[in-house]
Design a protein that fits this description.
single chain; 101 residues; mainly alpha; two-stranded parallel sheet
C-alpha cells in the first residue's frame, strides 16, 4: 500500500511483465482505473490481475476485518472460487444434481 500515486504507478510498471497472479490495491475502484489508464499498453498485460479495491465484500470496517477480507479474497481467487457462503454452493450443487437425474 502506498498513498503516493506515482509510486503505485511505478510499482505496477515494474511488475507488469511478471507472473504475480493477483495484485491487490487498497482504495476506491477509480484509483485502480486511473493507475491502469496511466500504464498505457502495459495495462493489457496486468489489468486482469489487478484487484482494487482488493478483498471480499464482507462489510469490513476495522483494520483486522479488512485484512481478513483481503486474505479471503486472495484465497478465493487463487483457488478459483467466488467466495460465497458454503450453503449457497451446497444448494446450487443439489439443484444441479436434481436437474441431471
Amino acid at each position: 500500500m502506498t498513498h503516493n500515486f506515482e509510486y503505485a504507478e511505478r510499482y505496477l510498471k515494474a511488475i507488469a511483465n511478471g507472473q504475480i497472479p493477483l495484485i491487490g490495491l487498497l482504495g476506491p475502484a477509480q484509483r485502480k482505473d486511473r493507475l491502469l489508464q496511466n500504464l498505457g499498453s502495459e495495462a493489457v498485460q496486468i489489468a486482469a490481475r489487478v484487484f482494487g479495491p482488493v478483498g471480499l465484500d464482507i462489510g469490513a470496517e476495522t483494520t483486522e476485518e479488512i485484512a481478513l477480507a483481503i486474505m479471503a479474497g486472495i484465497h478465493a481467487e487463487l483457488s478459483g472460487r467466488r467466495g460465497q457462503q458454503l450453503s449457497v454452493k451446497s444448494s446450487s450443487d443439489l439443484y444441479e444434481l436434481e436437474l441431471t437425474h
